[in-house]
Amino acid sequence: MNRLSIYTIVLTMLFNVQNSQAQETGMLDDKQKSIVLISSFASKGDVANLEIQLNKGLDAGLTINEIKEMLVHLYAYAGFPRSLNALNLFKKVVDERIAKGITDTEGKSFGLPKQHARKYEQGRKTLEEISGAKQPKPALGYGEFAPRVDAFLKEHLFADLFESDVLNYAQRELVTISILATIPGLQAQLRSHIGVGMNTGLKEAELKEAFHLIGGYDAAQGEIALTELNTVVNKK
């Protein structure tokens, strides 16, 4: 057995112990746990585990429209293919549950986004609200270098997507954080959204539990996410 294999086994064992300890705190309710795991497996394209968690999410009390909204939100961070595949799978799950006589709550609905003459400004103000920080026009760095991507982020992500109230801001950030914690190489964005998530009301202990849930399936990514959480908390 090589060193990498031994390291992976040890890391997984440590995470299982930490995960058991985190679950004892019970910071996340069953709906929140489902949000974390559905978002994580959908972002990875892990169809088998996603199907299990979609059923568990409905059993936990998430509405059909809440899960739809989560999977729509997914595309902004993991792309259209992952989002569309997850939505198609969810439709299959719902249809199968109907065939079995299971009645799930449809929940609050949201139609197509309204047309706004100043959509950029709407998105900028939303970002200010959830981040608790002033947002320059355009955003510093990437926004100055490529103004079009800044416009897309403000007008579409923070205006069109956030305009829906099917998910509240804290739920939406929990979806985002779970996606970013699962996909390798997105530490900078993860740190940013950990800060935003905490500003919307998510607690450090809740995020720790979320990362332990992810770590139960991907120890390396869970460890990275916990490290980034500690970095954000220590800077406050």
Automatic annotation (TrEMBL):
It comes from Sphingobacterium hungaricum. The keyword Signal applies. Keywords: Signal. GO terms for molecular function: peroxiredoxin activity. This is Carboxymuconolactone decarboxylase. The keyword Signal applies. InterPro entries: 4CMD/NDH-1_regulator, AhpD-like, CMD-like. It holds the Pfam family CMD. Residues 1-22 form the signal peptide. It comes from the Bacteria. Residues 18-91, 147-215 form the Carboxymuconolactone decarboxylase-like domain.
